[in-house]
Amino acid sequence: MTGRSSLSIALARRWPRFRLRTLLLAIAVFALLLLGAMVVVPWIMWRYHVARSLEAAQAMGPELFWSVDVFQAPRTDDFLYLLSDRERVLEKLIQAVEDDPDDTRRLHAVQTMRAILKQPGPSASRGRCLERALDLATRAGLSPSVEAELAAAIADLALSTGLDAGQRGKILTRTKEASPALMPAWARVLASIGGREETLVLIGLGDTHDPALLDSVYNSAMFHSHWPGLLPPLRRWLDDPVIAPFVLRYSLLTRSSEGREFLLAYAVAKTHPLVFRRQAVERLLETIPGTKLLLNAVEDHDSFAVLAATIDGDLRETFRAAMAKLEDRNGEALWTELIEAVDSIYPNRFPIPTTAMEKSASVAESRRRFIDDSNLLCLEWITGRTDVRSQAEWRRWYESTQPSPLSQRDIVKLALEHPETLNVAAILRRIVPYHLGPLPADCIPLYERMARDGPPASQFWACTALLLCTPKTDAVPIVIDLIDQKPADDLKPRNWGPIELLQWRFAENFDGDTAAWRRWWTEFGRQP
To answer: Would you say 161 and 127 are in contact if contact means Cβ atoms under 8 Å apart?
Structure first.
């Protein structure tokens, strides 16, 4: 009896401890389950939203805007879900282009892929997509609409990612084999590359009268080209009334002496349509050498009679007024731009911005203060005056002193001594003086010094002036060195300025491969 009582007492004492351990264990298990649910459920919901957004994009095309449900709080667009799982979504889209039997869904998949790849992202990701897209476009039996959209995606990627020799060869081969319906799409790809072989193929296609192909060939990088090899086809194309309106806008026609002669010959030929002859005259009036050609032409009786039809009013007075405006570009026009850009310095209303609106306003105000400071410093450096601050004070100073126009040498010297002036729009617009035609001889040594010794931005603009406004090519090695400074992966895809400069001047493009650029330059120097 006593033994049984002792056992009961022992069990009774252990029971509270047993229940406490069980309760603690249950709480721990429940906490783990809750924690897991807090992690897993959002992940499952995120994957669900990504999958739903991907399906919606393939079914209806990419939706790139913010949307609001009138019955709920505002929600972010489905496109942001796709960006949140970028790599997996791109792989799914490529697979859809390859395997989906529905052409509409394929087309939407390519459009969505293009939209995603236009956002900032790693170049390695763009490179993989480029390789897959190129492989699909050149080997798979795609419908013309899907292949054309893939070609547009390749054109986008070529600007930011670059192409190796094998990929460029595939594109050239596919272009030559393309049907007439697909030729415009592949011509746009060649135009985005802009190398010598691609340019020669585009020139070969340039005699077409097909509207879509005309748009692809002429509204392309050739529009900016300064390559002298483009002059002979330009002269031929000007004689074609269908093609002439496209090529009359080309930079080479106003920025080379041969091109200006072509424009003058076109303007004084009665056989060409009047509307296009007027356009030729307008192009000549963009530069001082072109305006001089027109002033000389009006002294010839026959030329005067033809040109008179292109201008309303007195011919000579119109041309003289255009010349005066060009010659005043570094005078009153420059002073006015600099002074108008100076404004009152506003206090920082949001020193510690918290909301999105305050952050946006703070960024805008910082930019405004930066512009004000830059223009004010520029005026101080030009005039030596540090006691004039506000826009009203600078206006009074200008009206009372009537300062002389700055020569191009003054502007280059200012940028050389104070590289920060290139942050000022009025100076940056004049550092490459296309309106002057050839660079003034006294400016060339300053540009060469800026290209050698300036910071990267100054080097780039000095090289641009030397390569596009003179026949000199000594700046090419400096431009090749600048190619290595291409922005990091997190920047938006775009063509890098130094690559674009060499492309415009020489119709060559090796993208970011500086070793290939240097090999090309060595061979270029060996040419007679």
So the answer is: yes
Tokens (6 digits) for 492 = 């938006």
Dihedral of the alpha carbons of 169, 171, 172, 176, in degrees to the nearest 10: 140
Tokens at 221, concatenated: 């990088």
CA 113/CA 117 separation, integer angstroms: 6
Give the tens place of pLDDT for each residue, 110-140. Answer: 999 988 888 887 878 888 888 998 898 887 6
Chain center to CA of 33: 51
CB 144 within 8 A of CB 181: yes
CA distances from 389 to 266, 367, 372 (A): 51, 18, 10
Q: Are 291 and 392 in contact (CB under 8 A)?
A: no
Sequence-separated (6 or more) residues with CB below 8 Å from residue 454: 416, 419, 462
- The structure tokens listed for 439 are 């660079």
Backbone Cα Rg of the chain: 33
Amino acid at 323: M
Mean pLDDT of 83-87: 86
Give pairs for 97-106: CB < 8 Å, separation 24+: 97/133, 97/136, 97/142, 97/146, 97/150, 98/136, 98/140, 100/58, 103/143, 103/145, 103/146, 105/58, 105/59, 106/142, 106/143, 106/146
Give mean pLDDT, residues 217-242: 92
H/E stretch holding 216 reads: helix 211-218
Contact 221, 227 (CB under 8 A): no
pTM of the model: 0.82
